[in-house]
Design brief:
By secondary structure, this protein is mainly alpha-helical. The chain has 20 helices and 15 strands. The longest helix is centred in the N-terminal third of the chain and has 34 residues, at 54-87. Mean pLDDT is 79; it is low at 482-486 and 500-511.
Amino acid sequence: ERFNDPDVVALVANDLSRIHRKGWRVGDLIDHLEQRGIALVAAAPGREIDTSNATGKMFVQFTAMLDEYYAEDISQRAKDSVAYRKSLGKYIGQAPYGTDKKDGYLIPTQAGAWLLGNGRFVAGKPEEPPEEGALWRSYYEGAKRILELYAENKLGLVSIAYQMNVEGFPFRARRSRPRPMTEDDIRRVVSNWDKYGGIVTNERSKDRRAYEEIDPDTIVFNEERAVFPVKLLREVAKIRHERSVRPPDANAGKPREAKFYPLSQLTYCAHCEELAHKHGDSAYRTRLTGTFLNSKPKYRHKLGVDCGCQRKTVPVEVIEGDFERLISLLVVNPDKIDEMAKLAIEVDRTLFKSEGDPEREKQEAISLCKRRIAAAVSLFGDGVIDREEYLRRKEKNERDIAYWQARTTESDKAALELSMCMDVVETIKRLWKITDDEDRQGMVRNLFSYILYNLDTQRIIGFKLKPWADRFLALREALYEDEGVITEEDVMTQITQRGLPHTGLGNRLRFYMELAPTLVLEHIFTELPPKLAQQNAILARNQDILARFALGELGSDLAKEYGLSHQRISQIVYGQ
């Protein structure tokens, strides 16, 4: 698609092998580029490409054929090596949780992590506790505990994840970093029952459908290579097979239509974010994803993770409605762009202590080049320099003049950047209700780096724009003060609380850069959602009933006063 854009003049690659590994595709690519007048450039030294004649094209085609042969040969060698090692019963790939590899075979791992008193996990060695009272949690024991809980057939994957977190068993993430367990981690362990039993298959465990597995009673485990009791693994396989249900459309051949959730994978749980900040570990961060619950689209917290939030889902219309209000508040009147550009320039000069006027510098440079050309004319006329030297000086100064004339002034650059941000925000606001979810998702990810959401209060509590839009947000927030949305008292209070200097435009912008998202959200969400306000009112009522019942008041009197049935009072009192 980009080849059709007028600003594309060349396709650059290190060499031909980086473009395609199929000879016929390289030929099609060259024809495609020639039709559009686009050059093909190889960046590697000594790999020049000339497709302007028949000889050059033939050389390119021949090189592509060799690259294709080389790629397929390497691929076949790797596949043969994998097949041979699997025939010996050796495991290929990263060892499953709770195990390590030795000479290609799985063995129980000695690795684990320490559980500190504050609930944080720290990687280490069993003989070197990081603090007094820390508990050692072995990854091998963690995997065994998961299999035992699953074999009891009382808990689902999500409940097992919660139970493992309660018992303080971590999961080993990449680079051996310990982190709390999730539903996906439990699924990985359970689906690897065959690998734990010394069985090596050609299919990855996560790609294997449980309802298509063979009868667990007929499975032959390799007891010499099994890292867990075979009886336990057979029970896990049996329960997994019984729990699995073949979906009605499994043989229909038509993939289920995917639904896009615009804020999915971009929105983070605020409670998990607080834990990540507390422990200094980004592994605690979790994203909200989209799902269908009770035939209603919702955003859902990552399953199996207990971060302290009481609610795990939020309806799509609630969170996306709040996001729409956020975008509406970010929209700027086009008449304000000049004011924002001037403020941006003034702030840059204050922050970076730039000297002089860039516009004046530009005009002086152009005048200097013109004087040099005039001087060269005089020298040539007087015979001091020859014609060749005169033309050289003239060409050089004319090129410098063209450079300075084409150079974007500081004000133009600031206005252009802010205009781009305004266009993006305005486009999202204008198209949000009329475009489809896939386009919404693309627009949101183009502007936002992340969004923080509190599931309990059902509110967006923070966000961060892309780096190229950070200054726009700070300047937009500064305009709120001019427009009366944010008062001078608000600004000074926040500056004082954070120990920032009270004076100076640069300090003021730093304040806006830090607190712009918070201040914007405070003026969007001044009240609780009606549904949440109602729920909080009911909760407060129930707490009042409990307190009065504990003081000896009769249930019948409470039912009459609150307009509830005696049965409902009993349910509240006894936690039903």
